[in-house]
C-alpha cells in the first residue's frame, strides 16, 4: 500500500478524500463558468488571505500568543506552500485575462505563451523542492520546518529530472483558444499524453516531499481536473488544474489541521524503496511522453513547441471543436 489507510479512522479518511475530490470539482465549476466566480475566487479571496497572512506573521514577530499558536503559522511555514499558492493564483488570473480578453495583454498574441510559462514555473518550484531533499539528506532523513520527516536520495533526483522533462512535454505554446461560451481557456494540444505524464510526476513529487498531504494533494487534487477534462471540459485541463490547485492551497493554508491532525489525516508509508519505485515510474512515463511528442513532430515536420503536434487526434479535435470562432 502507498498510504496508511486502515484501522478505526479509515472510514473518515475515505470520506475526507471523496469530499475533497467532489468539492474541488464543484469549486472549479463555480469559478470557471462566470466572470464573477473567477474574480471572487482568484482576486478577492487571495487579497483577503494575503492580509490575513501578513497580519499573522507581523503579530507573531511581536510575540502575540494568538499568532504564535495560529495553525497557519505553526503548520504551514514552508516556502513551498506560499510559492505554490501565489504561482497557481497568478496562473488563474492570467488565464482569465486570456479568456475574457482583458486589456491589451489579454488580446495580444505574445501573451498566449503565458500558460506555458506559469506552468513551467509551477513545475520548477516542485523540482527545486525535490532536489532540496536530495541535497539536504542524501541517503538519510531530514525534518522540514513543519516537522515532517523526509527521505533524500535517488528518488528525488529521478523525479526532479522527470519534472524537467515534463516541461518539455508541453507543446503548441501559442495554441491557446477561448471556448464558445467564454467559460474556458482551451489548450487543445495539451492532450492525455501530457496530462498522464504530469499527473504521475506530480503525484510522485507530493509522495516524495509532502508525505502527510499526498493522499489529498497527490490524488484527489490531481484527479479532479483530469476527470473534468476527460468527461465534460475537453481542452480545459490546464485551467481546471490551476483553479483547483489555487483553491486547495487557500484551504490548506488556512485549515492545515484537516490534513495534519484530524480524523481525516493520512500518512504515506514514507518508505524510500516505495518512493524510488514511484519515481522511476514517473521518469519512464515522461521519457516515453517526450519520445512520442518528438516522433510526431518529426513525422509532421513541425516544431513541437511553436506548433501543435496533436492535430488529428481525438483529444485535440474534441477540444478545438469547442473554440469560439471569430465573427
Q: Walk across the major sheet and give the strand order.
A: 1-2
**Distance from first to last alpha carbon:** 54 Å
One letter per element, helices H and strands E, the order comes to HHHHHHHEEHEEHHHHHH
Report Rg. Answer: 20 Å
Helix content: 55-70%
Major β-sheet annotation: 2 strands, antiparallel
Mean pLDDT: 95
What structural category do the secondary elements indicate?
A: mainly alpha
Number of DSSP-assigned strands = 4
Shape: globular
The number of helices is 14
Organism: Bifidobacterium hominis
Transmembrane segments: 12-31, 38-59, 79-98, 110-128, 157-178, 274-295
Pfam families: DUF5692
Protein name: DUF5692 family protein
Describe this structure in words.
The chain crosses the membrane at residues 12-31, 38-59, 79-98, 110-128, 157-178, 274-295. The protein is mainly alpha-helical and 327 residues long. 67% of the residues lie in helices and 3% in strands. The protein has helices spanning 10-33, 35-61, 65-68, 71-75, 79-100, 103-107, 114-136, 154-168, 192-209, 214-231, 237-254, 257-260, 272-300, 314-320, and strands at 141-143, 149-151, 177-178, 185-186. A hairpin with a 6-residue loop joins strand 3 and strand 4.
SSE inventory with pairings:
Elements: H1 10-33, H2 35-61, H3 65-68, H4 71-75, H5 79-100, H6 103-107, H7 114-136, E1 141-143, E2 149-151, H8 154-168, E3 177-178, E4 185-186, H9 192-209, H10 214-231, H11 237-254, H12 257-260, H13 272-300, H14 314-320
Antiparallel strand pairs: 1-2, 3-4
Amino acid at each position: 500500500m502507498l498510504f496508511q489507510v486502515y484501522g478505526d479512522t479509515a472510514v473518515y479518511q475515505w470520506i475526507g478524500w471523496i469530499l475533497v475530490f467532489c468539492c474541488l470539482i464543484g469549486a472549479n465549476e463555480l469559478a470557471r463558468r462566470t466572470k464573477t466566480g473567477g474574480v471572487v475566487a482568484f482576486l478577492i479571496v487571495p487579497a483577503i488571505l494575503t492580509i490575513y497572512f501578513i497580519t499573522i506573521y507581523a503579530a507573531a514577530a511581536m510575540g502575540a500568543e494568538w499568532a504564535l499558536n495560529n495553525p497557519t503559522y505553526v503548520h504551514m511555514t514552508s516556502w513551498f506552500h506560499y510559492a505554490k499558492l501565489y504561482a497557481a493564483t497568478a496562473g488563474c488570473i492570467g488565464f482569465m485575462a486570456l479568456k475574457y480578453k482583458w486589456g491589451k495583454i489579454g488580446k495580444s498574441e505574445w501573451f498566449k505563451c503565458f500558460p506555458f510559462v506559469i506552468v513551467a514555473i509551477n513545475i520548477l518550484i516542485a523540482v527545486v523542492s525535490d532536489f532540496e531533499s536530495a541535497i539536504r539528506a542524501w541517503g538519510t532523513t531530514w525534518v522540514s520546518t513543519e516537522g515532517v520527516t523526509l527521505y533524500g536520495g535517488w528518488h528525488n533526483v529521478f523525479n526532479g529530472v522527470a519534472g524537467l522533462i515534463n516541461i518539455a512535454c508541453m507543446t503548441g505554446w501559442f495554441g491557446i483558444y477561448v471556448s464558445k461560451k467564454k467559460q474556458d481557456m482551451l489548450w487543445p494540444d495539451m492532450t492525455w499524453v501530457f496530462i498522464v505524464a504530469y499527473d504521475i510526476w506530480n503525484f510522485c513529487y507530493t509522495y516524495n516531499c509532502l508525505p502527510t498531504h499526498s493522499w489529498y494533494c497527490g490524488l484527489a487534487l490531481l484527479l479532479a481536473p483530469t476527470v473534468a477534462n476527460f468527461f465534460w471540459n475537453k481542452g480545459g485541463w490546464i485551467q481546471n488544474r490551476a483553479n483547483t490547485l489555487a483553491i486547495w492551497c487557500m484551504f490548506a493554508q488556512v485549515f492545515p489541521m484537516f490534513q495534519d491532525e484530524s480524523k481525516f489525516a493520512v500518512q504515506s508509508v514514507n518508505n524510500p524503496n516505495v518512493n524510488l519505485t514511484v519515481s522511476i515510474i514517473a521518469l519512464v512515463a515522461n521519457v516515453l511522453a517526450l519520445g512520442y511528442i518528438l516522433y510526431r513532430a518529426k513525422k509532421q515536420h513541425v516544431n513541437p513547441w511553436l506548433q501543435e503536434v496533436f492535430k488529428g487526434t481525438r483529444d485535440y479535435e474534441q477540444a478545438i471543436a469547442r473554440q469560439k470562432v471569430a465573427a
